[in-house]
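Supplementary material to the annual report.
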Amino acid sequence: MMKIGFIGLGNMGVEMAKNLITAGYHLQVYNRSSGKADELEQTAITRCKTPAEAAANVPAVITMLSDDEVVTETVIGTDGILQTLQQGGIHISMSTISPNASEKMAAAHQKAGSKYLASPVFGRPEAAAAKRLWICVSGDKEAKESVQPILEALGQGVIDFGDSIGGANVVKIVGNFMIFASVEMMAEAFTLSEKQGLDRAQVADFFGSTLFNAPIYQNYGKLIATKAYEPVRFKAKLGYKDVSLAFDLAQQSGTPMPIGSALLNRMLTAVAKGWGDRDCVEAFDRGVAEDAGL
Amino acid sequence: MMKIGFIGLGNMGVEMAKNLITAGYHLQVYNRSSGKADELEQTAITRCKTPAEAAANVPAVITMLSDDEVVTETVIGTDGILQTLQQGGIHISMSTISPNASEKMAAAHQKAGSKYLASPVFGRPEAAAAKRLWICVSGDKEAKESVQPILEALGQGVIDFGDSIGGANVVKIVGNFMIFASVEMMAEAFTLSEKQGLDRAQVADFFGSTLFNAPIYQNYGKLIATKAYEPVRFKAKLGYKDVSLAFDLAQQSGTPMPIGSALLNRMLTAVAKGWGDRDCVEAFDRGVAEDAGL
Amino acid sequence: MMKIGFIGLGNMGVEMAKNLITAGYHLQVYNRSSGKADELEQTAITRCKTPAEAAANVPAVITMLSDDEVVTETVIGTDGILQTLQQGGIHISMSTISPNASEKMAAAHQKAGSKYLASPVFGRPEAAAAKRLWICVSGDKEAKESVQPILEALGQGVIDFGDSIGGANVVKIVGNFMIFASVEMMAEAFTLSEKQGLDRAQVADFFGSTLFNAPIYQNYGKLIATKAYEPVRFKAKLGYKDVSLAFDLAQQSGTPMPIGSALLNRMLTAVAKGWGDRDCVEAFDRGVAEDAGL
Amino acid sequence: MMKIGFIGLGNMGVEMAKNLITAGYHLQVYNRSSGKADELEQTAITRCKTPAEAAANVPAVITMLSDDEVVTETVIGTDGILQTLQQGGIHISMSTISPNASEKMAAAHQKAGSKYLASPVFGRPEAAAAKRLWICVSGDKEAKESVQPILEALGQGVIDFGDSIGGANVVKIVGNFMIFASVEMMAEAFTLSEKQGLDRAQVADFFGSTLFNAPIYQNYGKLIATKAYEPVRFKAKLGYKDVSLAFDLAQQSGTPMPIGSALLNRMLTAVAKGWGDRDCVEAFDRGVAEDAGL
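Predicted assembly:
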């Protein structure tokens, strides 16, 4: 039975950890609030008090955290995984972070004799639970081969985006941009339809079952059309963070993105209006509606 | 064998006419340039010299034309279909036009004792040929029932958007907005990916086979990713017309649409740069690329 | 004493008429609601029941009306000025209208043997009263020379923008765009300053007395900084009309204008939110403030 | 004769240094490239090899540098001014930097027993030479009083924006936003005018001498109208930096700024197109022109 480290038991992480346990791994888990580990099969885990503990004596450690800052602290902080990760050990970094952060951490790992892989995922907690995540990965070839069984235990497909350190992070950020753009687009489209006397739900259903019959349009389309703003699935302030990541990349690389600008303004407005803890769908749809006087 | 009128043998119309002939209809056809009728089975058509001739002595006449102006002229002009269409005869208006134009024509029809149905379609010429169009319809209930067999002969599904005259036109305009928004969104996403060192085609393929596995994303995604700007499938100046229809609706109904504004600027820029006769995909993708200094 | 026609006694028109009377002209006045003529020196006017009456037997007739539609009706309608304006008579069209409307009217005048001059003005009612308007003019050279004394009686300067029919209309529309852009810009700037803890009024005062020491910035700057939304000076729905004129010109001439798009969205949002009868300054400033959560 | 430190002899700094010398100050100067000091009266300066040297044994030291990073390094670096600035000594920070940077530096100064004042200026090198700068200042009241004579020697007015550390930086950033917005607005307005057949220069001249008779509109208006892109006065890449400062403030404080977004896209496009070292006026005007197909 292989032992690996697992850091970050949020809504996503806890489901991913369960799948790893099902696949036969023993996990050295660390989470900021320790209660989250109660959801896991206790015989299959070792509870750790620091990231460093979770990374000790294992060939690989996974991080599934919130942002650049938290991941960076978890790696290079006083009790960070670089303190203990063995020579040749691999850090599988699955959070949604910037390629810049990945590059900095990869350099720190290299200096310490360990390895870094960017491996963000697409899918919500339900998809994580159902082992239906899409897993992107980029970085050192040998490291990727070596962790392939771990990644396969977590999703329905692993896609290799090459040797560059942050390539998979870019794909994740670009994908989130496309999802948010789709949500804004539907909010605009359905609001216009409504103003013109049509039934939002019928319009959403028509497009979701014909030209736009992809999960994104079916799932979000229904939520937007029916204004199903609750329960909160993904907070607007996290949406703002994700859109900002795309916007920052656009600035750094000299890529003007008009839709990107529109999304950033939408999210900034939502947060400024105090909707940061509301669902992203509400942030987009209510934003369009209020501008339209609805 | 039922006889109906058919006006407008463009790339779309000619394929639709073929399907009606296959379904057993005899067509009184009219087209501005008469040569287009050569493509049709000659025993199944009667060539007409005016729209009025094409609409004479038939229970229904279809128009498949380019814009508000042409359709309006075809209806109320000197040789227009209102001159001959029989009492209770139905005009099935399948062009992409504004709901305002539909309302004006419906009023003219009502005054003349005939009926008007808005019935725009989704699908390109290949889809029309394969009888795979999606057909939207709105207007008078009895008229819709009466022409149902005709519409079914043209596509894979007929969707009824209610009794309002221009409802189906709105759906068509909204759908085009969503398609164009998707194209712009992919052009931005793939250009950002390229600037960050990724392979555009791999990114397009990944999203088109996972989160965005809908025809729009697969087909346009590939064209955009590989910069397959030729042959010209849909001219940028027609794209500008379609985006303008959405923008005008947005203005009339008081619906600010930030993505709509971005699309209008993109198309206006394309036309101003002299790309009006190039393909829409080029207009969007090259627009993004030039702004990014590529 | 010269007799001329004067049509349109709105807030602007009535002040302009007073100046013409002061300059010695006798006016054949027409206004939709006849009461407005009570403000004028009664011995100096002849009240007319139609535009045609006002234009009869005079060498020149001025129109100062609300928009393209009203001016066009006043010219070519059943009781329009073309019915009576003498051969060689000159229509001085001072409203804020599109160059397209001017061209159509100029053609109708030419056909009727009379002449058309576009001559819109810059300035608010107070400036009109003080004879401090700036008067733009374009069109037929001889006609311009012939009405020069009339125009000089109305403002502090007459600027000739050449022979093209609608040139002066373009200048007026462009000027309004610049004014609205300045208002939006100040609303954004002062709101940002406020959010950063500065005193809006001090910021406005600083810029208005240094880099931006022009009337536009001093007057509007103070109104915006202090949120002096009342009394209503210029309604948001008229602002929307003016911004739309600029936007339409931009579309027709192939000139993407990002600030123009931003202004149109701001005004559309204001009208959609029900602020159409509020002051433009409120529409801009409150729009920025609400988006910022204030 | 008072001795003060002066760091940063760029186009602005060198003119400011001359005015201080004229006012009777002896300057301990430091510049990255020492040649720039040759322009100054040699008997009135002491050349220093580091910022620390320039700040030694003086009651005040001025910095006039390019950005947050350079200023921060100059303060807290190995040879930074904090190494030598005496107890109670005042650092007058006149560069265009973020309020955040000011806050960090103020804290570092406080810890070291010295004081920090934000004091950015408005005006170009010609204005600096003519002692016609406008000088904004914010921060500690006593420190402001104490350096008042120094600031007065540099410009035509000193405006106090209160006690908050970064207030004056915000004013400077907001002012730059207003200047850039004015340039973009004129580029859009004049390009539309040109497309409509008007003479750009006449339009610029009219507005600059009537409604917009402020230096910004007169000076930039002429440059834009005549496409006087050379010599390069202010590089587009610096314009991008300045617009980014405004945009960052807008994000931090939750202030959606549509014109701000338009400016950022314009500058980003200019830099992406390779115009970073061209003049800002070219970046804006050529950007508008190329989008319009000119």
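Chain C has a mean pLDDT of 96.
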